Amino acid sequence: MENLDSFYSLMSKASSLTKEKKYEEALRAYDDILVKYLDTKDESIIEYLPYTFYNKALIYAHKKEYEKELEVYNELLSRFISNVSPNSEIIFAKAYMNKAICIQELKDEKESLDIYKEFVQNFENCLDEKVLEDIVQAKYNIAHILGDNEQIEESIKAYDDVIDLFKDTKEKYFLEFVAKSLVNKANKYKELFEFEKAIESFDKVIKEFSSFEKQVAIAYHNKATVLAELQDEKQMKKVCDELIEKFSNVHDEFIMNIVSSAEVLKDKDTFNKNCF
Predict the structure, then answer these.
(1) How far apart are CA 228 and CA 223, in angstroms?
(2) Strand, coil or helix: what is 130?
(3) 113-132 per-residue burial string, b: 16 or more CB within 10 A, e: under 16
(4) Which residues contact 232 (CB under 8 A, 6 or more apart)?
(5) Quick check: 125 and 89 in contact, CB under 8 A?
(6) How far apart are CA 131 and CA 262, in angstroms?
(7) Over the range 259-269, which residues count as b (16 or more CB within 10 Å of their CB) and which as e?
(8) Which of 14, 108, 172, 230 would you call most buried, defined as having the most Cβ atoms within 10 angstroms of its Cβ?
């Protein structure tokens, strides 16, 4: 018990130094904890040692020392991933996500793909909602990175994975990722010139996800551009009119730009026909 009280006391001191932005002192405090307790056999201390590594990594993140941050996440995961407890699941989830971000900062997003996949493989059956929030973000990031790297069909499958896993949830946080995945999936179908599938996915967002205005506005606009490519001027103008009517009074800069773009798209053919 004395060891545990001492451990908590040292952790509290290190945490206070971090909050005061005395980062060098905090790092020394966390290192002192690791020197003293890293080889402990006390299970109650072992369970919370990952927090020591994680907090230390966050300090390096604040200092933008990403190489050192990455080293700490690597050590945390290699030492403790085989001994995850319900109390530490969220720390490991955050460590994986932050490790992926580190790799993106140091290399490029493609290099982070394996980290997201490893995280999902290890934690996708977790029931903790906070961990699931990171899981859906990781799955979405996988799909996005695949799409950015011209693995379009694999990207579509990955977006379907997000959609299928979270489509029946009632939680708004997860449903927004479903809506975003449907929009991005449709855009990938557009790149493959599979326009009917693209329109089907855009329509699903428009009809079923009205509470996510940005995604609905994007779906309307991108559906209109598909119809323009198909030279279906009548339907294209109808979709633009619906978009303009629905969002013309929304005071959001992003949506206002989409409305303006729809107005240009709608009048473009008329303008071209009147030019000599």
Answers:
(1) 9
(2) helix
(3) bebbebbbebbeebeeeebb
(4) none
(5) no
(6) 39
(7) bebbeebbeee
(8) 14
Give the CA count within 13 Å in the CB-facing half-sphere of 141.
24
Task: For residues 24 and 14, give the distance between their C-alpha atoms in angstroms, rounded to a whole number.
Answer: 10
Question: From the CB of residue 163, how many other CB atoms can be counted at a distance below 10 Å?
Answer: 20
Give CA–CA dist 147/169, Å, rounded: 25
Token pair 């506005």 is at which residue? Answer: 217
Tokens describing residue 265? 């798209």
Calpha distance 183→217 (Å, rounded): 10
| Type of residue found at 226 | V
Per-residue pLDDT of the chain (276 residues; tens, 9 = 90+): 557 889 999 999 999 999 999 999 999 999 999 999 999 988 888 888 999 999 999 999 999 999 999 999 999 999 999 888 888 899 999 999 999 999 998 988 889 999 999 999 999 888 899 999 999 999 999 999 999 999 999 999 999 999 999 999 999 999 999 999 999 999 999 999 999 999 999 999 999 999 999 999 999 999 999 999 999 999 999 999 999 999 989 999 999 999 999 999 988 755 455 444
For residue 70, give both structure tokens: 């990455």
Structure letter (DSSP) for residue 112: G
Q: Which residues contact 72 (CB under 8 A, 6 or more apart)?
A: 53, 54, 56, 57, 60
Residue from 225, 233, 236, 231 nearest 198 by CA = 225
